Amino acid sequence: MTSPALPKLSLHHGSSAIAISQSEIVEDLPTTMKFQPVKIRAAPISDLWRKPPNTDVDNAPTVLISVPLNLHKFHSAKVTVSANWNTQYDQGGLVLFIPDEDTTKWVKTGIEFVSGAPKVSTVAASRWADWSIAPLPEAANGKLTIQVERETKGTERVESLWIYIVNEETGEKEGIREVTWWFRHDLEGGQKAHSHKSLLVGVYGARPSVPEGEGREKEELVVNLDGFEVTMFED
């Protein structure tokens, strides 16, 4: 029996990638998908951010699995992110998108450079986005392994998406954020449109600000994303 093929990765910019969700959900995928290292170059004034009353920016470069995943079968995603973080709001890590009735829901998590230091950063966006940051130890040298994972209780898949910091040496996970509404469409009864059960998963980088210093106006942030891995439930 032939093993399912590993899907390709494709470059997009922000939620413009939502066009992928118009394709049929691909069910025949490896349970564990491991990808080669990814390098993303983010130009100044690139971002993925949503804030009332009218800010909705989604031009950040994203490298996504080129087929929509089944939201119900998604278990986890993990990546190690690093860069020469040096400009306010430099960032990169994991990104997930879900099309909804009125907007595109998304979560991004990884490292963000804030007030002169790289921090662990997570943004979850529904109608509007929120933002949380946590310290990144100096010993990490601007490098972080981040994981998102569906919460389970026994064999039951429940509503929350958890964000974890992963210790590279021990594999131990530390939960830092719970997104309680992420799997809402998977738990609601009744018939839902196909797109609401689609999930797009990938990695991203962004440089929302312009670097300071003469001649740096167009300087790109180079984000290294290693060990990108996505796992699916078997059933």
Describe what this molecule looks like in 3D:
The protein is mostly beta strands. The protein has a single domain, classed as Jelly Rolls (Sandwich), CATH 2.60.120. Helix content is 2%, strand content 53%. It is built from one helix and 17 strands. It has one helix at residues 184-187, and strands at 9-13, 32-34, 38-42, 48-51, 55-58, 61-65, 69-70, 74-83, 91-99, 104-114, 117-125, 129-135, 143-153, 156-166, 173-179, 198-206, 221-232. The strands form three sheets. Strands 1, 6, 7, 9, 10, 11, 12 and 16 form an eight-stranded antiparallel β-sheet that branches. Strands 2, 3, 8, 13, 14, 15 and 17 form a seven-stranded antiparallel β-sheet that branches. A two-stranded antiparallel ribbon has the order 4-5. The longest helix has 4 residues, at 184-187. It is globular, with a radius of gyration of 17 Å. The protein starts with 8 loop residues before the first strand and ends with a strand. The model has no long low-confidence stretch (mean pLDDT 91).
List the helices and strands and how they pair.
Elements: E1 9-13, E2 32-34, E3 38-42, E4 48-51, E5 55-58, E6 61-65, E7 69-70, E8 74-83, E9 91-99, E10 104-114, E11 117-125, E12 129-135, E13 143-153, E14 156-166, E15 173-179, H1 184-187, E16 198-206, E17 221-232
Antiparallel strand pairs: 1-6, 2-17, 3-17, 4-5, 6-16, 7-16, 8-13, 8-17, 9-10, 9-16, 10-11, 11-12, 13-14, 14-15
